[in-house]
Predict the structure.
Amino acid sequence: MIRIFPDYESLSYAAAGIIVEQSQKTVRDQGFFSLVLSGGQTPRRTYELLSQDAVRNRIPWGKVNIFWSDERCVPQDDPHSNEHMAREAFIDHVPIPPDHIHPIRCTKSPQKSAEEYELLLRSFLTEDSASFDVVLLGVGEDGHTASLFPESESLDEMKRWVLEVHSHHEDFSRVTLALPIINRALLVIFLVSGEAKANTLYKVLDNSLDSCRLPAQLVQPSNGQLIWLVDKEAGRELENKHLNR
Ligand code: 6PG
């Protein structure tokens, strides 16, 4: 499903609204709610809205567990840190139990950090069918999502849930969820904003194109729902080519 919004603010409100609805329904049905946060800047406004009274008071924070889709191996207070952004935007302003917050910590080597995060996830998602309730993702201009970059071996990983990424164009490594665990999610929500993403989004969503395997195209929840929340600027080419189905 693709929903195109007039602007970034309305896109962010819609995302926050879905998180409220899903958290309330899931806690009613199963007693807890797992939310995976995307990195990057697009989700910032959505996160800020989660800490505003009108929204914050509608989420059962005591039953929420928060994870990350990926992290850059930088100090916790580094502006590149996805954990830092989310804490600043909402986590430090909502009544979520501290032991329900599960950041990816690159305290050891990226590989060791990936292995440790995978052990944590496997202790949390115990049964074979268990999966995250909501996974938020973004898309880079090169079609990457989480820290799964084009033409990287990580796209072919079929077993591991968490991988280390040695990025060639950044002076830090990353740790990322891999497709096997992302595609087990019950709901994946992509947040895409801005003109700069318009062409990439078109390539990702127009299956008729034989574009090489863009990582964002490989996010296909096996038993879950996939929603694209897009603002008008990012969705321009979709509308031009009537792809906003
Ligand atoms: C990361 C993100 C990454 C992000 C995209 C879009 O840690 O880099 O997880 O996948 O979602 O790069 O980033 P923006 O939202 O900043 O455009």
Summary: The helical segments are 8-30, 44-50, 53-56, 82-89, 110-124, 179-182, 198-205, 236-240. The longest strand covers residues 225-231.
